[in-house]
Amino acid sequence: MAQNDTKNNVSSSINKRSARSVAMGAAFVMAMSAVGPGFLTQTAAFTSQLGPNFGFAILVTILIDIVVQINIWRIITVSGKHAQQIANDIFPGLGYFLTFLIVVGGFFFNIGNVAGAGLGLNVLFGISAENGAIIAALLAIIVFVVRNALVVMDRTVQVLAVVKIAVLIYILSVTTVPVSAAVKHTFLPTDINFYSIVTIVGGTVGGYISFAGGHRFLEGGIRGQKGLKYVNEGALSGIGIASVIRVMLFLAGLAVVMAGHKLDPANPAAAIFQIAAGNFGYKFFGLLLFAAGMTSVLGSTFTSVSFLNYSHSSEGAAKFQKYRPYLVISFIALSTLVFYIIGKPAQILVIVGAINGLILPIALAILLVGAHKHKIMGDTYKHPILLSIFGWLVVLFMAFAGIETLINTL
Questions:
Q1: In the 3-class helix/strand/coil scheme, how is the chain assigned residue by residue?
Q2: Which end of the chain is less packed: N or C, by CB atoms within 10 Å?
Q3: What is Dmax (Cα atoms) for the chain?
Q4: Are 200 and 35 in contact (CB under 8 A)?
Q5: What is the tens place of the pLDDT at every residue in 341-391?
Q6: Core vs surface per residue 231-267: b (16+ CB within 10 A) or e
Q7: Is the pLDDT at 248 greater than 60, yes or no?
Q8: Cβ atoms 33, 299 nearer than 8 A
């Protein structure tokens, strides 16, 4: 009974104000992880290819985001367990398999995140991308090892989010945005590109990103059914923030494309800013890329390392926290070293990106099964039937889509 009592309450050590702060921290960690360097390139490239029809892919992605995030955040928070612990409770060893998928995928994506931050500093200050990556890695490590690291991470991500939005507002202000065409083709597309939907969904809620918010809730001491209010606020806020940035970048790219300009396929996102605002705009792109890379490094590192926590007691949790800084430093340092040695990790990221499409349906299916087990969720919680139905529809859609993408990529 003690376990069920714990499940039905937000941790007694946290008040409403702190709970809302944790919810916003979770929202920003998830949202900013979803709009990293890869997202910038993908959105620009698909906007160049599909024009206003890409708005439909963004709309579908937002709807899938809502289903995935609310399902996963609710299940993790009510159970009071990390996703890997839930998986192990369903079937012994399943959690280790899930951890392998998330941590390995997160590691390789982090190579791209560090590279993006380094390239951003290269654009801003002319230093090499490799040296820029080292600087970005050191900044990220400092965020994690200082006192009250989670609070510092939340604040850093929020500041960088403001930077992203401010840069995009400026670019939109100096372009003529074709709003009517964007709205029309978003709801009545003349060309539906299946691959673009799969890629954007995989990049926004695939792999570690699905769990960033839920695990942040646990780390902040929020768990149980009374935490559901904050789960809904955090999940919807995070999706809203990510969607606003996604739509703004799409509109900026669409303005450039529909004005008759061709985006450089080697760096389509940079081309949007350079065409819209010249060299000044290109410098703004560097700032945006640095912010995107840094926020994704923080989100990827936090979530991937959280998957190594299998403690079920306060003593075990304290022991994990003792070693956490070393795990964080190793994760970031190794990601940076691989980028520094190999250079452009494009081929690695393509393969991992395809695999990422498969991680979402596996992970979501595991948690949906756990949502209906009393030993995981307690005796009083009933997972909403509509969330389960829509969740399984996303599992089926993304499983098919992920397999198709993986086959085509390989």
A1: CHHHHHHCCCCCCCCHHHHHHHHHHHHHHHHHHHCCHHHHHHHHHHHHHHHHHHHHHHHHHHHHHHHHHHHHHHHHHHHCCCHHHHHHHHCCCHHHHHHHHHHHHHHHHHHHHHHHHHHHHHHHHCCCHHHHHHHHHHHHHHHHHCCCHHHHHHHHHHHHHHHHHHHHHHHHHCCCCCHHHHHHHHHCCCCCCHHHHHHHHHHHHCCCHHHHHHHHHHHCCCCCHHHHHHHHHHHHHHHHHHHHHHHHHHHHHHHHHHCCCCCCCCCHHHHHHHHHHHHHHHHHHHHHHHHHHHHHHHHHHHHHHHCCCCCCCHHHHHHHHHHHHHHHHHHHHHHHHHHHHHCCCHHHHHHHHHHHHHHHHHHHHHHHHHCCCHHHHCCCCCCCHHHHHHHHHHHHHHHHHHHHHHHHHC
A2: N
A3: 66
A4: no
A5: 876 655 555 555 556 667 889 999 999 999 999 999 998 999 999 999 999
A6: bebbbbbbbebbbbbbbbbbbbbbbbbbeebebeeeb
A7: yes
A8: yes
Amino acid at 133: A
